[in-house]
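#structure-requests
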Amino acid sequence: MRHVILSAAIAASLSATAAHADVRLLAIGDFKNTADRSGLTGNLENGLAANVFGGIGSALAYAGGTTFLFAPDRGPNATPWNSAVDDTTSYISRFHTVDLTLKASTSGALPFSLTPVLQGTTLLSSPTALTYAAGAAPAQNTSGKYYFSGRSDNFGAGLSTNPANARFDPEGLRVSNDGNSVFVSDEYGPYVRQFDRRSGELIRTYALPGNLAISNLSSKGDTEIANNPTGRVANKGMEGLAITPDGKTLVGIMQAPLAQDASVNATKKMVRIVTIDIATGATHEYGYKLTNGSGVSEITAINDHEFLVDERDGKGLGDGSAAAVKQLFRIDLSGATDITNLNGAAAANASVGKTLFLDLVPSLSAALGGNTQVPSKIEGFTFGQDVVLNGETYHTLFIGNDNDFVPASAGPSRVFVYGFKDGDLPGLTAQSVAAIPEPDVWAMLLMGFGMAGTALRKRARRLTRV
């Protein structure tokens, strides 16, 4: 990995976290955007712009070098317009390509500065027709391009995992090792879908275990919860997604216990992890028990069998309260028991062990001015490139927040960067993602032809070398 070097003369003394002495906050970057780069015009049903920017920390993925992908969730639903659909809108599902270059800081308490640069926005679509509620299909749909959206009533008959449903609530995001695909998990199905990274077109929807699905669907989350004794809880589906460094396995994690698990005392704090063989689609399930958090927001791979899991409460900036629980735990799935067919005490007793890696609240509270300023929804995170601080190499962990598209109350979309040493997280194996042209360059390539197209392709190859 390319190193960013900080002069020893400006190295700051940073507070250690409770779990490991050498884990420290390196930088905080704020997004300044009010509009994305989707090219969408007009307004959503609630009056907000169709290209409104926000909520992007729901999912965060490393794409090589200083390039990262961010995915907002189902869109802005904090502005009331129709309670029958929980105020969800026809916000088209998307991900953003962002440059996160760390630069040595010459002032301030943190040793690096970070100014996120939005490079492009990619909309997610299907080449085959999807099921929408009457009048709820995005106006941008064309023959052969049907967009996924956040409207809660965009579903048809059958289970919640029906692949033809247009409703989509992205919460997990990872990039394939060849750089050509993105994998997205969501809360509505739950779904795990594979999309072409350049076009945003659906490639595949993976079949997940049937015990995750619900059979009684509703556009109102409370109604879904009341009418389904089994399956995922409304708005608490597959919240996190990891990809192993070898690029062969996806690892999704549910935000909360399944309805059937929550109803049994032994498993009421157990969430399920689902592994998916990317090539074959074969799945396995494992149990993870919550400690202090009310749910899980993310999972990322340390190596091919160990992972970091984020537990949090819903308190902090955006909730009007003081943040208390934002913690990352290390788990190991090697030798773990598959609980696909287990319930109750048998499943709970097979849950994986865990150790605390990082408690975010102390350092973020100190940097932001108190626990009430720590974002309530710390959600996406991923490892990034190494940096050098005071002559020592640090690995990096990039963390995002979901501000629910309401910066006035939940603060800006932010990126928090932590650094740590080998001894803090032994066994870390970085995912290697092949570079592809960034969105603007790719658009130029698509328009190129003849000698001009050849010249652009040569230029793109030079741009993508790392």
